[in-house]
């Protein structure tokens, strides 16, 4: 299938730019300003000073959520002032607490592995933040961010329909591609979204930022949504429930201090000894057990996913072939996707069975499974459990 890349903002357009203080969003705003667009910068305020995370004197620029937010906002304000860009900060702390932080903690405490950045993009950055901007009476032609992805539209209908929804395609810089983070954003929102860095490589972005003298080019990139040192503090609202660590035969190998500290495929920090290297093979939340197994026990040839989103809400009607990405760091692999019967479990919406062409390692419930056809996101859901391909 052929796709056309949608036009970027042109001179005279009003463009809202989501700004974090990082090099990508800052360069995006500058490029659009120099193009002749009327740029309006906006930053979402997430950090709640009353939360359990400790304040310290070191801004956490390597995380999206933390006490370094105030410094980020000051840098955005300074940049916008210097370039005569209108700038706003919108408070979405309450929504972030409910849609991201609580989701993150609940998923881990039920033995699943969440991806908070995906939910933040869907519910906050491309949701609550835009709603807050609307409430301020700000109108714009486009919403741009520094993500590495492309906005495209098929030249014919998808999944046998006449629908040609706006969709997300991979960026030029494959190593920085962020389509996995963006798959849950509805097509109706994507219609006004553009990613000006889609055709650039990260090295080119840094070079352009340095030439422009942007302070953001000297900053470290954000790596996680929260600094790793804060993980235990984030879960300090209630104590972890200790339980047994067992092997595949049920033998007790040790004790864990809460299943929220473990994820499928984990090897470090298990605190057990065995004749062969052992990994977290599964997490039994009902019985509060962490189950370990050798590396070969982590392979799966199929899984069930639910809570699916489809471009333009156009759901497939029959089995299809795709590439699937089961975590951010994994490469897309060949699979077949088919509807799954509803009788064998509790699911959110219609579940789908994804059958790998070759078995894959450490398929983790709670992670997203994103489907690609011709390099374009054709849908995605949340991994529910592994299963047999038969």
What does this structure look like?
By secondary structure, the protein is α/β, with parallel strands linked by helices. It is 22% helix and 29% strand. The chain is built from 8 helices and 20 strands. The protein has helices at 23-34, 69-82, 93-109, 116-135, 179-182, 187-190, 202-211, 231-234, and strands at residues 3-5, 14-18, 38-45, 63-65, 86-91, 142-144, 150-154, 167-169, 193-194, 224-226, 243-246, 252-256, 279-284, 289-293, 299-309, 320-325, 333-339, 352-361, 368-373, 376-387. A 6-stranded antiparallel barrel has the order 15-18-17-16-19-20. Strands 5-3-2-6-9 form a 5-stranded parallel β-sheet, with helices on both faces. Strands 12-11-14-13 form a 4-stranded mixed β-sheet, with no helix packed on it. Strand 13 (279-284) and strand 14 form a beta hairpin. Helix 3 (93-109) packs antiparallel against helix 4. The longest helix is centred in the first third of the chain and has 20 residues, at 116-135.
Kindly summarize this structure in a few lines:
The protein is α/β, with parallel strands linked by helices and 390 residues long. The chain is 22% helix and 29% strand. The longest helix is centred in the first third of the chain and has 20 residues.
């Amino acid at each position: 299938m052929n796709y056309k890349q949608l036009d970027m903002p042109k001179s005279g357009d009003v463009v809202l730019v989501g700004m974090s203080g990082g090099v990508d969003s800052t360069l995006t705003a500058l490029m659009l300003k120099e193009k002749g667009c009327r740029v309006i910068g906006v930053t979402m305020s997430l950090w709640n000073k009353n939360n359990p995370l400790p304040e310290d004197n070191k801004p956490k620029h390597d995380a999206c959520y933390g006490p370094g937010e105030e410094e980020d906002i000051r840098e955005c304000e300074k940049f916008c002032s210097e370039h005569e860009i209108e700038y706003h900060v919108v408070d979405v702390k309450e929504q972030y607490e409910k849609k991201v932080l609580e989701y993150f903690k609940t998923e881990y405490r039920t033995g699943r592995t969440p991806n908070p950045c995906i939910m933040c993009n869907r519910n906050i950055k491309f949701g609550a933040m835009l709603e807050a901007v609307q409430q301020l009476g700000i109108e714009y032609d486009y919403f741009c961010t520094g993500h590495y992805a492309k906005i495209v539209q098929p030249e014919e209908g998808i999944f046998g329909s006449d629908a040609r929804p706006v969709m997300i395609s991979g960026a030029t810089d494959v190593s920085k591609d962020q389509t996995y983070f963006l798959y849950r954003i509805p097509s109706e929102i994507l219609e006004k979204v553009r990613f000006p860095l889609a055709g650039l490589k990260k090295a080119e972005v840094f070079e352009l930022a340095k030439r422009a003298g942007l302070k953001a080019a000297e900053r470290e990139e954000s790596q996680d949504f929260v600094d790793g040192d804060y993980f235990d503090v984030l879960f300090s609202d209630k104590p972890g429930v200790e339980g047994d660590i067992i092997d595949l035969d049920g033998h007790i190998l040790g004790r864990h201090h809460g299943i929220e500290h473990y994820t499928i495929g984990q090897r470090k920090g298990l605190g057990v000894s065995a004749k062969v290297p052992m990994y977290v093979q599964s997490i039994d939340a009902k019985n509060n057990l962490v189950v370990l197994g050798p590396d070969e026990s982590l392979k799966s040839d199929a899984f069930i996913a639910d809570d699916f989103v489809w471009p333009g809400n156009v759901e497939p009607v029959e089995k299809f072939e795709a590439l699937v990405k089961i975590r951010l760091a994994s490469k897309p692999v060949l699979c077949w996707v088919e509807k799954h019967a509803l009788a064998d479990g509790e699911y959110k919406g219609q579940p789908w069975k994804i059958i790998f062409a070759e078995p894959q390692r450490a398929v983790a419930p709670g992670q997203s499974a994103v489907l690609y056809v011709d390099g374009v996101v054709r849908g995605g859901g949340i991994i529910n459990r592994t299963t047999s391909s038969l």
